[in-house]
Amino acid sequence: MTNLPALDSPYWDAEYETMARDRLRDLQFELLTETIAFAYEHSALTREAWDEARIVPTDIRDWHDFTDKVPFLDKDAQRRFRDERNDPYGGVLCRDPAELTAINSTSGTTGDPTLVPELWGGGFVGRPAIMYRDFWGMGVRPGDHFALFLFTFRGPTYGFVQQLGAIPMLFDYDVSEIERLLRRSIEYRPTALYNFGGTMINATAEIAAAAGIDPRDAFSSYRSVVFAGEPLGARARALADEWGMPLFEHSNVGDVTACFECTAHDGMHFWEDMAYVEGIDPMALDHHDAQPITGNRVRCELVATALTNRVAPLVRFRSDDLVEIDRTPCTCGRTHARIWTIGRKGDEVVVDGVSVLPVDVWDAVESVDACRLGLFQVVRPQRAVDTLHVRVGYQDTPESRLGALRDDVTNAIAQATGVEPNIELVPNAALLRLGPPHKIPRVTKR
Ligand SMILES: [Zn+2]
Question: Which of 22, 156, 245, 346 has the fewest other C-beta atoms within 10 Å?
Fold first, then answer.
């Protein structure tokens, strides 16, 4: 087990979590220098991009050099490399594949999962931070039970829980597991649940009622219930409030690191000694054209660089994610930046000049009772469209009531977006088949 901090400390690693920002920036540059040398030497894709830009790691002597000279990488470049060179890792793996201890993948919601190679015990330099700092801060302590409700990335998480001194309890991310989760929660009284999204929360209401279980009792021992991947709709949030679930949002930061809400619930922290994160103008053509956006809480596109990853470090990875960033200190005492996810650049639909992202219609869909599971898809054949077309899932509605239901959904979305939508109603079950389980693509071409 790793060395544990004092049990009453709110920080896993107080020195690093509360480090003054100028010191943090110096530390970042030290780590950056090591990372770019490593990536240039071992990552074929990075080497190719840098050769094309006619730079080598020793050209990067300060932050200005970095932003001025280093080209962006993106998922398309990775996929192109993968297909052209027949390299499943898209040119970013820096190790002999035989050295890897696990290969995970992203969930593939957008149709093309990316492999996430892993090397236990040698994958990162420095002290363990991501998730350790976060879950310690949320109140997980040695001896606690910790419920894992996961799909495509179980392996690393299981070991991490044990490193915290806690005891993992494993569940599949599936509606059919909810009753077992509720019963085991009453039996073992776990303190953390990772991860439990809006669809699961909504489904819990009916499953708990049918099983005669009080969700307030089942969730009473939890200090944190972490959700990820999608924003939580108003309905799920109201249920969680009613049951006393202490919710924490969690997300991915440009495929380079992760971020979690802290107890202040005011944005998600990412650890800046693990990743260097930049905000740029989303319309930028390339790194020469990219204006940095440094203001706090201004909508920007996220570009991230791994600082401690020694398996597949991405350097200036342009994520397609629209975010807001705040680098002012948080009331929790940590000095590391906080982030808010807004949506994916590729998901934006422009209807008659009005920008609409899935997050903009979410609450409207859920506000209609028959659509309370919040299952919908924005149909986006291209970025600019004449009409906003939304496919919306429903339940418990007879054929004869569908016309009225369509009117309700149309009005709710029109009010939320200022755009009159064209609504296509589909039974929930049909939309869920588009999964991965219980998470559907929110934007589709057809
Ligand atoms: Zn905080």
Answer: 22
Reading the block at residue 432, the tokens are: 């869920």
On whether the CB atoms of residues 131 and 155 are closer than 8 A, the answer is: no
Residue 275 Cα to ligand 1 middle (Å): 17
Task: Give the three-class secondary structure for 236.
Answer: helix
pLDDT in tens, 150-185: 876 556 688 889 999 999 999 999 899 999 999 999
Cα 134 to middle of ligand 1, angstroms: 10
Lowest mean pLDDT among 124-138, 141-155, 159-173: 141-155
Domain identity same for 114 and 155: no
DSSP annotation of 412: H
Same-domain check for residues 322 and 372:
no
Domain-terminating residue out of 313, 345, 377:
345
Residues 276-292 have pLDDT tens digits of: 999 998 888 999 999 89
Alpha-carbon gap, residue 217 to 185, rounded angstroms: 9
How many Å lie between the centroid of ligand 1 and the Cα of residue 182? 29
Quick check: 65 and 59 in contact, CB under 8 A?
yes
Q: Which pTM was predicted?
A: 0.85
Are 386 and 380 in contact, with CB atoms under 8 Å apart?
Answer: no
Pair 190, 159: CB distance under 8 Å: no
CATH number for the domain harbouring residue 366: 3.30.300.30
In angstroms, the Cα distances linking 363 to 110, 180, 233, 278, 341 are 22, 29, 6, 30, 16
178-188 and 198-211 helices, crossing angle to 10°:
80
